[in-house]
Amino acid sequence: MEWAQNKHTLGLVYAKLARGNQQHNNRQALVCYEEALSIYTALQMPAQVSNVQRDIDHVRYVLSHGRA
After folding, report:
1. Number of H-type helices and E-type strands within the chain
2. Exposed, middle or buried, 29 (CB in 10 Å: 0-12/13-18/19+)?
């Protein structure tokens, strides 16, 4: 669970990173979020899954529409 939490946190860092290529950073954030969801399950950790899914949705929106 700690690994998944660290991946989610790393995804948040990538999503907010102001340096470098923002699209690349957002894609890296998505990778981290997906890795977190490989551990979190909706039955065992519904709040965490919801939080990660919200962050995935936000990054996908930013990737498709520009900075939110």
Report:
1. 3, 0
2. buried
Q: Coil, strand, or helix at residue 66? A: coil
Given the structure tokens 């957002």, which residue do they identify? 26
- The CA distance from 47 to 27, in Å, is 23
Answer whether residue 61 shows pLDDT above 90: yes
Q: What is the pLDDT of residue 66?
A: 77
CB contact at 8 A, 15 and 26: yes
> 0.85 exceeded by the pTM?
yes
| 8's tokens | 């989610």
How far, rounded to the nearest angstrom, does the alpha carbon of residue 9 sit from its chain's CA centroid? 8
Phi, psi (rounded to 5 degrees) for 14: -60, -45
